[in-house]
Specification:
Elements lengths: L14 H23 L5 H81 L5 H16 L6 E6 L2 E8 L1 H11 L7 E11 L6 E5 L2
Parallel strand pairs: 2-3
Antiparallel strand pairs: 1-2, 3-4
Helix pairs in contact: 3-4
Length: 209
């Protein structure tokens, strides 16, 4: 006589039982899917529908990747143009200020050279550059004005300062000539004009403007 009594297997406990249950569910799901898509009457349409859905998803994914790639390229182009433009501006700024500094240094070097030449000439017993300029101004003063002794001349590092009193017409002509004397860097005019009062010979100085 056969014994159909259910025997308890002590090994089918815990996680092992859970794994067997999951495997059974998976097999059931695969079987149901196979029956659904391999059905003799509707299986072909279902498979075609699944195929279209998969193709559509693949096309959408490809399009999304293409859009993302294009966006990345666009951003990279913008960044490269930004860097190029700002690098060009920075280079122009550096060149401009380098030229300004170079010009300033050149002018200062020329001034220092003139000052050094003047000091060396004076220590050697010769005339300084300021002495030479003073003589040139005095010579032009004697040729252009009626009373050269009424004008004092001071020259320091090429800067000529005139003080005294002269008629207005003589002042204008004198200033134009002195400005063109070689070695004169600047002319400071402190001359006053002389006004004649009536028939007498009295004069009164008036500052020029």
């Amino acid at each position: 006589m056969w014994n159909f009594e259910k025997r308890h297997d002590p090994t089918l406990t815990g996680s092992h039982s859970t794994d067997l249950s999951l495997a059974g569910l998976a097999c059931f799901a695969l079987g149901a899917a196979a029956m659904y898509y391999l059905d003799p009457r509707s299986g072909k349409e279902r498979r075609e529908s699944l195929h279209q859905c998969l193709n559509g998803a693949a096309d959408q994914t490809s399009a999304s990747l293409a859009d993302a790639s294009q966006a990345v390229r666009h951003r990279a182009t913008e960044a490269a143009e930004y860097v190029r433009d700002h690098a060009s501006s920075a280079a122009g700024y550096v060149r401009e200020h380098a030229n300004s500094v170079g010009g300033y240094m050149k002018d200062r070097a020329g001034d220092l050279a003139e000052s050094a030449k003047s000091v060396v000439s004076t220590r050697a017993g010769g005339k300084s550059e300021d002495d030479t300029i003073r003589e040139r101004v005095r010579e032009e003063l004697s040729n252009l004005v009626s009373n050269a002794s009424a004008v004092s001349i001071d020259v320091r590092e090429g800067v000529v300062t005139l003080t005294g009193s002269l008629p207005a017409g003589e002042i204008d002509a004198l200033l134009g000539v002195i400005n063109n004397i070689r070695g004169v860097r600047r002319l400071d005019n402190h001359l006053h004009t002389v006004e004649h009062s009536g028939s007498d010979n009295n004069t009164s100085p008036r500052a020029t403007t």
